[in-house]
Amino acid sequence: MGVWAKVLLAWAPLLGSAMICFICIAALVRHQWMQNERLTYPIAEVITNFLQNPEPGQRFAPVFRSKVFWAAFIVVALALGSQGLMKLGYLPVGFVTKISLFASFNFPPFNQGYADSWLILNPTIYFSVIGIVFFLPTDLSLSVWLCFLVGNFIFAMLR
């Protein structure tokens, strides 16, 4: 048995029970959020577009006939495929999907934000996260961002 299989088996009960807990909590609050408060989740609408019934005489959902969908799909496939081929050594360079701001913040107090085991704060902009945030409602994305900033500020102050 490989090293990763042993680790996965050791963590499987915790991960499995956590997933069941998350699903149960989502089932408990879904009705309140979706019916009473009418919160929208645009990422759920994307999935429902894939699951729509095809129009008469068509084989696939209407989203698959959209030129915008296929253009976005090709861009993402090229970006991720180039990174994979670069890691395997078949391409010398790949698409940039993140920007490290380490050099811009390599001075106190920014380089003293975390414990020594985490080395230093390494601020990075991930384009995939920016893309996912476009699917979040504005009030939710603001609260997630503020929680992130406040958590980092509290950690830095306590250190």
Give an overview of the whole structure.
This protein has 159 residues and is mainly α. Helix content is 59%, strand content 4%. The chain has five helices and two strands; from the N terminus they run H-H-H-E-E-H-H. Strands 1-2 form a two-stranded antiparallel sheet. The chain is extended, with a radius of gyration of 21 Å. It starts with a helix and ends with a helix. It has a domain at 96-159. It has helices at 3-36, 42-51, 67-88, 127-133, 138-158, and strands spanning 98-100, 124-126. The mean pLDDT is 77.
Keywords:
single chain; 159 residues; two-stranded antiparallel ribbon
Write the topology of this structure.
Layout: H1 3-36, H2 42-51, H3 67-88, E1 98-100, E2 124-126, H4 127-133, H5 138-158
Antiparallel strand pairs: 1-2
